[in-house]
Amino acid sequence: EIDSDTNIYSSSVEMSYSQPLLKNAWANGAQDFLIAIQQINNENFSLEQKKNVLSMLSEARNLYWSTYEKIVLYTIFADKKEYAEKHLGSQRTRYNVGNATVIDTLSARLDYLESIGLYLEAQTDLARIMKDLSLLLNVPIESLNIDTARVIHFADLPNSPVFIKMVEKFDPKLQIFELIHKKLDIQARQNKNQFLPDLRFNLEYNRKVTGSNIIEDFMTFNSNAVISLVIKYSFPIKSNKIKMQKTLLSKQKNKLD
Asked: What is the pTM of this model?
């Protein structure tokens, strides 16, 4: 600042620093709390998307093996129908030469009719599930190639730790559950911190320089530094206590054993 009448100028610098020591101190500040919660929300969102993708893959995998089963059953019932048809022809030939009775022929015909029913049912089931698989994969039915000649091996059941890791890999529900518990833990810690007194360390510093454009060597310096500790405490209202208790209850319900 410059006074036009006296040509005396002045400039000042002011700095202040305030650090909470109890309430909202260190990692319990409002911004730290929001950042921690947002990070958990982002991670939870990613896991939810992963869960949706894995759910679709699991549905496709289950439908593939169901189709595999229907193809095998269709092949079995087709072979059974062919065998029943040949057996019926054989019984009719034997009946014509007098080596079989009418009962034998009727029994063979009944077996043949039953095999046709099972064959048609397997054919219908196969057509339906092939259509479902093509819609899920968004490909034409003609392009589906289920290799039923491949040999299937069943691995031994894993132990508990390995099984849990496999579950976490293919189904992130457990990880989402752990994130919910972590989020509740942060909220409970933040709620508890709000009951502490507001103790702050304050540091203020200001420096003022005064000089003149007319008088040489006329310059003064004024410096001032203030250090203070300020404590405030307000009794928590009932709603805050209820909020904290609800958070602790939710955390207890979501506790992992």
From this structure: 0.58
